[in-house]
Amino acid sequence: MPGKRVAHLRAHGGPPAPRVARPAADVAPEPGRDCPRCPRLVAFRTIWREREPTWFNAPVSPFGPPDARLAIIGLAPGLRGANRTGRPFTGDYAGDLLYATLGEHGFARGHYAARPDDALALVDCRIVNTVRCVPPENKPTAKEIATCRDFLKGEIARMTRLCTVVALGRIAHDSFVAAMGGRQTAHRFSHGAVHAIGDLTLYDSYHCSRYNTNTGRLTATMFSAVFAAVRARLDATDCGAAATDP
Ligand code: SF4
Question: Is 76's C-beta closer than 6 angstroms to any atom of ligand 1?
Fold first, then answer.
């Protein structure tokens, strides 16, 4: 797999390095259906609740077992995908590629039918979005990303066996690094890169959006290679074992 390990270097005599570690437990509980924190997203949500009252139209909760060793961090719900169905990556093109790839590498079982009541189950992995509410044109603002980071931090803190993270795209990567207290300059996003951040290992991938695959930026083969590397690491190490075998 193309990739590189990005070391976290600290210059002697320089300012003290930030503490890079998992957030404290219970940074934030899960957001409620009417989370008021991002006014622009609340307004967008309100419009779509009126327009499509049968859709989910609320912050989308993570999907997958909380004791998973792998977390996949996406960007935000797609308007007609997770925002409609209420499950991450469910109902749009990105989900077709993601769930097929997860199944290929043993992180999902059952049939994905693009609806939350299908028989799909995730295995040792959990999907969480950087921003829980659908943003207009799929573009959350920097402030919305920072505001919703409290919930990302809470998720990281509560996943006690977590040892490996896949960031889908630069925004997910940057928000995860920030959630861990890492320096962005020490951990630049690059497809295929692998970063050691605190006690976690972060793998970068381009987002599996239709745009990225249509333009050839990300192919199914490239995407599969990222999860093959994650699979190999999880199979070769006992990461996550400490939390279950005290
Ligand atoms: S994006 Fe996150 S913080 Fe903002 S309103 Fe939705 S759940 Fe709340």
Answer: no
Which residue's C-alpha comes closest to atom 6 of ligand 1? Answer: 133
Judged on CB neighbours under 10 Å (0-12, 13-18, 19+), 141 is middle
Domain spans, the chain: 25-236
- DSSP class of residue 58 equals S
Distance 35 CA to ligand 1 centre (A): 6
Residue 86: how many CA atoms within 13 Å on its side-chain side? 10
DSSP state of 16: P
- What are the backbone dihedrals phi and psi of residue 129, each rounded to the nearest 5 degrees, phi first? -95, 150
Alpha carbon 45 to chain centroid distance? 21
Q: Is the CB of 154 under 6 A from ligand 1?
A: no
Report the atom number in ligand 1 closest to the C-alpha of 31.
7
Burial of 49 (0-12, 13-18, 19+ CB in 10 A): middle
Q: 25-236, superfamily in CATH? A: Uracil-DNA glycosylase-like domain (3.40.470.10)
Q: Which atom of ligand 1 is nearest to the CA of 135?
A: 1
pLDDT digits (tens, 9 = 90+) for 167-198: 999 999 999 999 999 999 999 999 999 999 99
What pLDDT, in 10s, does the model give residues 87-146?
999 999 999 999 999 999 999 999 999 999 998 999 999 999 999 999 999 999 999 999
Among residues 177, 117, 123, the alpha carbon closest in space to that of 145 is found at: 177
**Residues across the chain:** 246
Name the phi and psi angles at 41, rounded to 5: -75, -30
